[in-house]
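Section 3.1: Structural characterization of target chains.
Under the original work plan, the team committed to producing a structural model for every single-chain target entering the pipeline before any wet-lab resources were allocated. The record below documents one such target. The sequence was received from the expression subgroup and is listed exactly as submitted; it comprises 272 residues.
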Amino acid sequence: MAIYDEINYWSEIKIDIVKRYAAEYSRILTKQRGLHHIYIDAFSGSGRHYSKTKKDFVLGSPLEATRLDPPFKEYFFIDIDKEKMSALQNNFPERKDIHILGGDCNTLLLIEVFPYIQSDKSRRGLCLLDPYGIDLTWEVVLRAGRMKTIEIFINFPAMDINRNVLLRKPQNVRDSDITRMNIFWGDNTWQKIAYDEVPDLFGEQRKEKRPITEMVHEYKKRLENMAGFAHVSAPLPMRNTRRGIVYFLLFASQKPVADRIVTYIFNKYRNY
C-alpha cells in the first residue's frame, strides 16, 4: 500500500476538477492547428490511490489524463518517490509520448520540462502543482507565469501552513518551517500578512494570527502581480467533514476563456 496514497473525498473532487478542465483544454487546443499541448503533473504519485470513502482503488490524475479524448500530445509525470514512479511506469510500457521523471519537481521543471516547452513556440502546457505540503518553490510558479504558455492548477497547503507556520505564538515556529514558507512564498513578506499587531491589556503590542483566507488571497495577488498571470481564479477551499479547510485550489492562466471554464467548474463544488 505504500506506493498508493490513501485519499479522502476532497482529493477525489480535485481529481475530477482537473480531469474536467483538462478534457476541455485538450479539446480546444486540438482544434487549433499547429499547437502542441502538453500535460504536466509535478507530484504525480503512482497513478492510483486508495479511496477512504469508496474503500477501493481509484485512478489518480496521471491515468485520468492519459485516458482523455482527444489526448494531449505529450505527458510529463514527476515524483520524488522512486517506487511510485516505477509503479506509474508499468502502466505505459511502450508509450513514447509519456515521460516519467524521478526526482524533485522544483528542479526538473526548471531545467528540463519548462525549457522543453519554451524551446518551441507551438508548445503549450497545463501543469498540476499539487504538493503534499509547503514543498513547492515560488521560482517554479514565477517561471510558469512569465513563460505565458503554461496554465497551472496549484494547491495552497492551508493545513500544513496552519499547523507549522501560522502559530498563535510566532516565536514557537521552527526555523526550518520559516525557511520552507519563505521558499514557497518567494520571500519573507508573508510574515507581515500572517499577523496583526494588537495591544494587550497592558498596552504592549502582541501579534495576533490572521485567518488563512487572507493569506491565500494575498498569494492570489502574487500570482497576478508578480508571476504575471492575467487571470487567477477565486481560491476554492477544500474542506474536510468538519468543514475545516485542508487546502485551497487555485487556477492561473493567460486566457479569459480558461478562467471562465474553471470558474464554472469550481462553482459546482464551492459549497460542497
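The CA atoms of residues 48 and 108 lie 22 Å apart.
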